[in-house]
Amino acid sequence: MSWTDWFKLRKREIGMDYRITKDGFKCLSDNGCITSVNWDQLISVKIITTPKKHPQEEDLFWAFADKTREYIVPNCKDVYGFLPKLPEKLPGFRCDIMMEALASHGDREYVCWKKNQSRRFAAADN
Questions:
Q1: Domain residue ranges in the chain
Q2: What is the pLDDT of residues 22-75, one digit of tens each?
Q3: Could you tell me which of 43, 16, 40 has the C-alpha nearest to residue 27?
């Protein structure tokens, strides 16, 4: 099973829709439950790319992880509207890795940010 097939299956199984907000993001389930995850609760942010087989098929996913699970968010306009604020909200966020991921078309994971590494990246920039 490809990454794309797995994500499609996963989205159907949990029936989630996502909204990026200034405080983090919200997961909206089909049964009406809302889970909010604040930026300060995250432990990592990854971008997962997959080869695109059809023009309408999603080939880029954001993976936001807290201590309990990883939330897979299909690429959406909410994410792009918030991209300029990610380095502010997540100190040490690697924009260079994000740019590499956004230009990619293969099966790959790009770690853009890890909570325990953000202090080291910030210190290296000073």
A1: 3-125
A2: 888 787 777 777 888 899 999 999 999 888 777 767 788 888 889 988 888 777
A3: 16
